[in-house]
User: What shape does this take?
Amino acid sequence: MKVVVIGGGASGMIAAITAAKNNNEVILLEKTSSLGNKLKITGKGRCNLTFDGNEDDFKNNIVKNYKFMYSSFSNFSNIDVINYFNEISVKTKIERGGRVFPQSDKASDVVDALKNELKKYNVNIILNADVKKLLIKENEIIGVKLKDGKTITLDRCIIATGGKSYSSTGSTGDGYFLLKKIGHSITNIYPALVPLKSNDDICKRLQGLSLKNVKIDLIDKENKNIIYSDFGEMMFSHFGVTGPIILSASSRLNKVKNLDIKFKNSDIKLVIDLKPALSNDMLDKRVIRDFGKYTNKELKNALNDLLPQKLIPEVIKLSKINENTKVHQITKEQRLNIVNIIKNLEVTITNFMPIDMAIVTSGGVNVKEVNPKTMESKIIKGLYIVGELLDIDAYTGGYNLQIAFSTGVAAGNNIN
Assistant: This one.
């Protein structure tokens, strides 16, 4: 069969390779001048390929529509991803948090290996090929029309154009437009795995400060419920907050109803526990010990053993204690207030950063309109939809690339 794959990212390349392995004639269309643009910058240029864990880990790290992934993940799991890349000369390693990277720490090695596989299986790669229309006849796809007016006929089509995040890599939401035009419904599109905005001055003053081993709670103050909790690393920026645990928090946040109103009312709060290993009582005893050590010093010079230097004036400012107060003059009430601030440093979240800064897109093609075993559209025969186009997203840690690989292989293996 003649198969056209639209999109040369992770899911598109592996779908094309898989379809070609199954003795199909495969054409891969990429609208930019190179393949794997987004793949090259994932994991800060190191490419977090997948995760080290089991099916429950996968399930617990998918934010929405895990059940849709059950079949494709079972047939091409994280173990299969690791084995596959080892077979095509990309040796892998496991790092903290079960993240799997190429041993070389080079995302470009992953892209080059996939390009070699495309060549090995004689996939016809056409770059700068911008698809403007899917040609449908009697609810079956028969071809695609390019921006330059050229028409390519086909028997089957796999669309893997990605979401709207990192538009500079070519992911500009084209697939949503193409699929909506032929009858597919698209759920609301939001940035996911994206930094969060705050107008609080403390973020600007702490710009560049990275915090490790902290606990965060993202709280809906109106309903008094915790939206998301995590432990790990984050960083303050001039625009707000970022870092691994913040990115994951953003993916959960965009599932909250009436979010625009909550942002407007300042109802979303980030509460940071700077010392999660210590209970309030334990932290108080630690502060008492430090205060005993520095009893004749001013408060501003008595917290150096406990907090990063940049944080000390902020904690003191929030405590409303004069920074020049001698430690032995501080009351028990004031000391407990300092403990409370360290355990509950609060930042008001006002919005997401733009989708261009998002690692992935939340929302997409309604999964009820796609066969989860084959990735074939239930609306248009012969059309397969894979990767970030689907309304599935996950937290950081290699889970989103796993979705791309599992769905791409499912489509490539089920061309019929």
The chain has two domains: 2-189+362-413, 195-353. The CA atoms of residues 21 and 121 lie 6 Å apart. The chain has a mean pLDDT of 95.
